[in-house]
Design a protein that fits this description.
This protein is globular. With 112 residues, it is mostly helical. It has one domain. Helix 1 packs across helix 5 and helix 5 runs antiparallel to helix 6.
Length: 112
């Protein structure tokens, strides 16, 4: 079910924009209800593993260059960072922070 949903969603995504602003792109996909569900489900480590595996498979099929897989890894690290915050952001409220971290390759408050 997730595979079909994401394949459908990614057919409507501007890949170049996604490569620069992946979290904004996901937020703008007009599926607010499912986003709230995903935020809840991400508290389940087994769901996170299934979700990450699925996204990896989809991006691997869609990616024309290996750097896309490294970018996916960066997104995963940002999600892990967020999950370990005292009060984690939802995707809807944190996408700008996540995209900034993604582009700058550093966490908020980090000096380098």
């Amino acid at each position: 079910m997730l595979t079909e949903a994401f394949q459908h969603l990614f057919q409507h995504v501007n890949i170049d924009h996604f490569k620069e602003y992946p979290f904004e792109t996901l937020t703008a996909l007009e599926f607010a209800g499912p986003l709230a569900t995903l935020d809840f489900q991400f508290s389940d480590p087994q769901f996170q593993d299934i979700f990450d595996s699925l996204i990896f498979k989809i991006v691997t099929r869609m990616a024309s260059d290996p750097s896309s897989l490294w970018k996916l890894g960066n997104m995963y690290i940002i999600r892990l960072w967020n999950h370990n915050q005292e009060k984690p952001y939802t995707l809807a409220e944190g996408y700008q922070i996540f995209d900034q971290m993604y582009r700058e390759k550093k966490f908020p408050g980090e000096n380098n």
